[in-house]
Amino acid sequence: MNITLITVGKIKEKYLRDAIDEYSKRLSRYCKLEIIELQDEKTPDNASEKEELQIKDKEGQSILSKIKDNAYVVAMDLKGKQISSEEFANFIDNCGLEGNSNLVFIIGGSLGLSDQVIKRANYKICFSKMTFPHQLFRVMLLEQIYRGYRIIKGEPYHK
């Protein structure tokens, strides 16, 4: 399975980079992982709705340019479906069984994802109704992918 994370924004904090590196290393025995970091667009203070939409659209075009035609795209979206870790593991497993061996997970910037990216997504997942910093969320997503593989393989980790 090939898993790609397309993320808007760079990780600046060393402790988060260390966690990402650790989960990337752990995942290397289960899948081929690629993380694509895209530059986030600066949002001015008191930006208008129109300006925010333009920023999301620009980030969206950048995201879409990195998605291959044969990719199964999963958008991390507040309007997506909330699922358990076991359901997430089944989702990953079923994608592989159905021939979707190129999974792309998308984490948007601070304003979220553009309508075009949402339309391109084959599936939308919401981890929580809470808002998380996208840098921290990257660690959370990698941990859940790792947990999912451990569940799929019946290996100890999940409790």
Automatic annotation (TrEMBL):
Documented EC number(s): 2.1.1.177
- GO MF terms on file? rRNA (pseudouridine-N3-)-methyltransferase activity
Where's it mainly located? Answer: cytoplasm
- Sorted alphabetically, which CDD domains does this protein's record hold? RlmH-like (cd18081)
User: Which GO cellular component term is one of those annotated?
Assistant: cytoplasm
Q: Which domain of life is it from?
A: Bacteria
Catalysed transformations (reactions): pseudouridine(1915) in 23S rRNA + S-adenosyl-L-methionine = N(3)-methylpseudouridine(1915) in 23S rRNA + S-adenosyl-L-homocysteine + H(+)
Q: Record keywords: Cytoplasm included?
A: yes
* Annotated positions binding S-adenosyl-L-methionine: G108, F127, S128, K129, M130, T131, F132
Classification via InterPro entries: Alpha/beta_knot_MTases, RlmH-like, tRNA_m1G_MTases_N
Keywords attached to this entry: Cytoplasm, Methyltransferase, rRNA processing, S-adenosyl-L-methionine, Transferase
Location relative to the cell? Cytoplasm
Q: Which Pfam families match?
A: SPOUT_MTase
Regarding protein family, the annotation reads: Belongs to the RNA methyltransferase RlmH family.
| Subunit structure, interactors included | Homodimer.
* NCBIfam families associated with the record: PRK00103.1-3, tRNA_RlmH_YbeA
> What role is this protein assigned?
Specifically methylates the pseudouridine at position 1915 (m3Psi1915) in 23S rRNA.
The protein here is known as Ribosomal RNA large subunit methyltransferase H
Q: Which organism is it from?
A: Clostridium sulfidigenes
The taxonomic lineage of its organism, from the top, reads: Bacteria, Bacillati, Bacillota, Clostridia, Eubacteriales
